[in-house]
């Protein structure tokens, strides 16, 4: 598939990040499928990585740790457990599903149908 490249300055990247946060963590979304989309998650990861490479990388590295963002952690857990695929998913699939809702790079430890431990550092 053909790849495309955006040319963004820091503030444009910052605002794209804000828009993606809305898409991923809105408590009353117009489209429920957006927050758990692997495509949206992939774009978000690219934006996150670019922010962590910016001149403000230390601030961003701290910001992206879920232990520093309990609001986002709680929202991610609620969205994951509400995902219709969650109940029937294998542990490997649960890791993938959880990764689509979250932003950290570490693995998820999932067991049972309603239990999830999201990385926090």
SSE order and pairing:
Layout: H1 10-25, H2 32-35, H3 38-52, H4 57-63, H5 70-82, H6 91-101, E1 109-111, E2 115-117
Antiparallel strand pairs: 1-2
Q: What does the model show?
A:
This protein has 121 residues and is mainly alpha-helical. The chain contains six helices and two strands; from the N terminus they run H-H-H-H-H-H-E-E. It has helices spanning 10-25, 32-35, 38-52, 57-63, 70-82, 91-101; strands at 109-111, 115-117. Strands 1-2 form a two-stranded antiparallel ribbon. Strand 1 and strand 2 form a beta hairpin. Helix 1 runs antiparallel to helix 3 (38-52). It is globular and about 40 Å long. The model is unreliable at 103-121 (pLDDT under 50).
State the main characteristics.
121 residues; mainly alpha; 6 helices; 55% helix
